[in-house]
Amino acid sequence: MSDADKTPRKPSARTWTRLALGALSGLLAGGAALAVAELVAAAVRPQAGPVVAVGGAAIDRTPTGVKDWAIRSFGTNDKLVLQLGILAVLALLALALGVLAARHRRTGAAGVLVFGVVGAAAALGRPDSTGVTDAFPSVLGAVAGAVLLYVLVGLLPAPRWDLPPAATPSEGWDRRRFVIAAGAAAAASAGAGVLGRALNGADGREAVASRKNVTLPPPASRAPAVPRRAQVRVDGISSFVTPNSDFYRVDTALVVPKVDATTWRLRLHGEGVAREKTLTFDDLLRRKLIERDITLTCVSNEVGGPYVGNARWIGVRLADLLEECGVRPPSAGGPADQLVARSVDGMTIGSPVEDVMDGRDAMLAVGMNGHPLPFDHGFPVRMLVPGLYGYVSACKWIEDIELTTFDAYDSYWVKRDWAREAPIKTQSRIDTPKPFARPTAGNVMIAGVAWAQHRGIDKVEVRVDDGPWQEATLAAEDSRDTWRQWSYAWRATKGGHTLTVRATDRTGEVQTEKRTRTVPDGASGWHSVVVTVD
């Protein structure tokens, strides 16, 4: 064996070029796969697309602590961050498959097909899957990506090693053919992606039209006018009524369901239901509607957090419907203690039957702040139960109500370590001054909101540093189911200060100082802000 034969083989410039162009080919193939999948999903349904299906599966399997962290860190942008993360991972995998295909052409192309299978399995495993057609976007997209990768790699320069010339193949390659093929693939993928997005955006036009055609009837039971002094006139405080566009949204839907009100149906059935009902949207509108101001709170709301909002809702009293079906609460001998609401996207939310039927204004809401529900907030119908956190009461896009027991069934969030029952805790928040604000010495208004839905707020107190608690001035109360604004005139002195607030509800319970995280039944503790007075 000669010394030349013993010399380790080193990748030549041509081989490095092949690997780099292989990575580029993988990226183009991945883009083509997603674009074709998006286009096919427009024909099937948007929720069947691989990014949405895999994202939904990821949400379902993500540990509760991680979900809670995502909501705290990214707020209502958590879904966007998840989707961007999925795309970033797919891009890295596509690059890797391209490099693999540059060395092993068929193996790399087959790898693309594997990810198609993963996407198809995720789509078919979703609670709202409509059948085998949900696999089509991922499968057809993967086939398109695999074929493109196989073709592009076939146009690359053959691998070449730093061996003696006599032992090295002298194959050339046509750069022009590769550039044309890659450019055409990129353009076609972009076109397919744009078309798919446009078609997916057009999907649900019947639902959009049905919402435009809704005229909410005047409620049989109107909400009293909001007291003129319910809104504190201090700059920086939240609006007493939260506009629809500003109302928080926390759910697991990567694609907001667009449900056609003309075809929507609600089935009511289960244990203790003597007479099952199936209702249409028009059936609900023909019933006696109630109008109520109700503050909603998300269980993921940290102390001082933004996931609380107040709106005027119009809907049908849920207790009336249940009574018509022969349902009795457990206190009256009814066999069911849990009401399971199911959404069109497969979400399940369990509420205590006793709370729904105890006289509070639990409702199937059809309107929000004088308009039909926005799609983001559950159009055509959502459920509300005053005094309970949203994850055990506020099912959006509802389509099914089943009466059962807590022992027989665990709803979506209960399976993920949240409590079965979760009344909203007494909480308060400082809206102004903001953390790290620099107010001027003298009279400074401290103001905010407090809430203890279905109990009401009786008192709010403010403390400066470690001084005594001082009672704040409460704004007029709208109802015990809404938050209540408060204010306190502080004679601010120069220097750094910590401002703290606590509330007392109408049962006499004082908001606890003990800090807890949101899991399993909502955060607790006093809200504080640090300011520097100039």
Nutshell version of this structure?
The chain has helices at 3-6, 13-44, 50-61, 64-74, 78-103, 105-124, 136-154, 175-202, 205-212, 281-286, 318-324, 353-356, and strands spanning 265-270, 277-280, 290-297, 308-317, 338-343, 348-352, 363-368, 371-372, 382-384, 398-404, 427-432, 442-451, 457-464, 470-471, 473-474, 484-492, 495-505, 527-533. It is of the alpha+beta class and 534 residues long.
Keywords:
534 residues; alpha+beta; five-stranded mixed sheet; five-stranded antiparallel sheet; 12 helices; globular
Question: Topology, please?
Answer:
Layout: H1 3-6, H2 13-44, H3 50-61, H4 64-74, H5 78-103, H6 105-124, H7 136-154, H8 175-202, H9 205-212, E1 265-270, E2 277-280, H10 281-286, E3 290-297, E4 308-317, H11 318-324, E5 338-343, E6 348-352, H12 353-356, E7 363-368, E8 371-372, E9 382-384, E10 398-404, E11 427-432, E12 442-451, E13 457-464, E14 470-471, E15 473-474, E16 484-492, E17 495-505, E18 527-533
Parallel strand pairs: 1-10
Antiparallel strand pairs: 1-2, 3-4, 4-7, 5-6, 5-10, 7-8, 7-9, 11-12, 12-16, 13-14, 13-17, 15-16, 17-18
